[in-house]
């Protein structure tokens, strides 16, 4: 990717060194990746949107890739990560009061928090895969997930430090990444102990047309170095985030939003998600929600699976705001 004019640098933000990939000039688009991802999941968007006159900026979030990974699990709350991103914008674009944000998966969760905490910094948001999730003051998140899905649900399995990492290490980094990146089951992801992703770890995984062995290898070289703990620590803070955001119970997101999801995405197919998105709940909490796009036959990693369509969707939306 370096050969295509994408520049890499390290920026000191919020007490950590953050790796950033960027290209282009103009209004800034901040790309926020999810799990188990890197700046690299935005490679197609960086090239396309920088060519359309934008400055595209895609960091590795804390715990990922070439960005520092603090040791303490509690250093991965929404306040830490949003703090990193606000500090990054202060450092690299002090002249731009507001920026465009494009986010996916955990990046979308972080982006929703960014819009809640600092709407003054966001011109418009394109959220992929994960809609806004209003805080339920009645019950914590992990207990809710256990009640619905049981203990083998992947988020529940991620809670105990070290346990899932040991299982992933046995399966191998490349294998884990291929399992996640090629996951197309619209149902919930279960990771029963010792059973991995429900198939023998030596069963071949055929990569889809949009993902090459070289691309998987790029991910693998980074995750070999860092392990998965940094990314998994985001899940370990779901309940702490719930506690820290009590003051935002019932708060609305006052930022213009476009939401895009694949109809095969496990998040879109989780209980209640479609009703919330399509029957007024989402719009109630994000009153400036302008558009919901459901892409047929597309799964979770939509910006890599359908880059051209996603690039067009992003551009069509954000060009209205400058």
UniProtKB/TrEMBL annotation:
Pathway(s) this gene product operates in, as recorded in its UniProt entry: Secondary metabolite biosynthesis; terpenoid biosynthesis
One annotated GO molecular function: epoxide hydrolase activity
Sorted UniProt keywords: Hydrolase
Catalytic reaction(s) noted: (24S)-24,25-epoxycucurbitadienol + H2O = (24R)-24,25-dihydroxycucurbitadienol; an epoxide + H2O = an ethanediol
Domain of life, source organism: Eukaryota
E.C. code: 3.3.2.10
Domain AB hydrolase-1: 27-307
Coiled-coil features, chain-numbered ranges: none
Gene3D superfamilies xref list: alpha/beta hydrolase
Transcription found in the keyword field: no
Cited InterPro entries: AB_hydrolase_1, AB_hydrolase_fold, Epox_hydrolase-like
Hydrolase listed as a keyword: yes
Subunit structure: Homodimer.
Family designation: Belongs to the AB hydrolase superfamily. Epoxide hydrolase family.
Role noted for this protein: Epoxide hydrolase involved in the biosynthesis of cucurbitacin and mogroside tetracyclic triterpene natural products (e.g. siamenoside I and mogrosides IV, V and VI). Cucurbitacins have cytotoxic properties and exhibit deterrent taste as a defense barrier against herbivores. Mogrosides are nonsugar highly oxygenated compounds used as high-intensity zero-calorie sweeteners; they also possess pharmacological properties such as regulating immunity, lowering blood sugar and lipid levels, protecting the liver, and acting as antioxidants and antitumor agents.
Record protein name field: soluble epoxide hydrolase
Native source species: Pyrus ussuriensis x Pyrus communis
């Amino acid at each position: 990717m370096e050969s295509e004019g994408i520049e890499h640098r390290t920026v000191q933000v919020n007490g950590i060194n953050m790796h950033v990939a960027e290209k282009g000039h103009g209004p800034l688009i901040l790309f926020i990746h999810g799990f188990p991802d890197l700046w690299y999941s935005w490679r197609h968007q960086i090239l396309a949107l920088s060519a359309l006159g934008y400055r595209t900026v895609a960091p590795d979030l804390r715990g990922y890739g070439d960005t520092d990974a603090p040791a303490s699990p509690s250093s991965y709350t929404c306040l830490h990560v949003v703090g990193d991103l606000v500090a990054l914008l202060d450092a690299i674009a002090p002249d731009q009061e507001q920026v465009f944000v494009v986010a996916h998966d955990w990046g979308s969760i972080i982006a929703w928090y960014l819009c809640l905490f600092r709407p003054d910094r966001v011109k418009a948001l394109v959220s992929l895969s994960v809609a806004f999730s209003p805080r339920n003051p009645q019950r914590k998140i992990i207990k809710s997930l256990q009640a619905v899905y049981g203990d083998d649900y992947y988020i529940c399995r991620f809670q105990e430090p070290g346990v899932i990492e040991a299982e992933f290490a046995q399966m191998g980094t490349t294998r884990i990444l291929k399992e996640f990146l090629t996951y197309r089951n619209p149902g919930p992801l279960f990771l029963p102990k010792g059973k991995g992703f429900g198939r023998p770890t030596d069963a071949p995984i055929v990569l889809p047309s949009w993902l090459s062995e070289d691309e998987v290898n790029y991910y693998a070289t980074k995750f070999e170095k860092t392990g998965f703990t940094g990314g998994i620590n985001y899940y370990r803070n779901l309940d702490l985030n719930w506690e820290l955001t009590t003051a935002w119970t019932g708060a609305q997101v006052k930022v213009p939003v476009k939401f895009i999801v694949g109809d095969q995405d496990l998040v879109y197919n989780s209980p209640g998600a479609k009703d919330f998105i399509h029957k007024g709940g989402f719009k109630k909490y994000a009153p400036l929600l302008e558009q919901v796009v459901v892409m047929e036959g597309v799964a979770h990693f939509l910006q890599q699976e359908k880059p051209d369509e996603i690039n067009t969707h992003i551009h069509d939306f954000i060009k209205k705001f400058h």
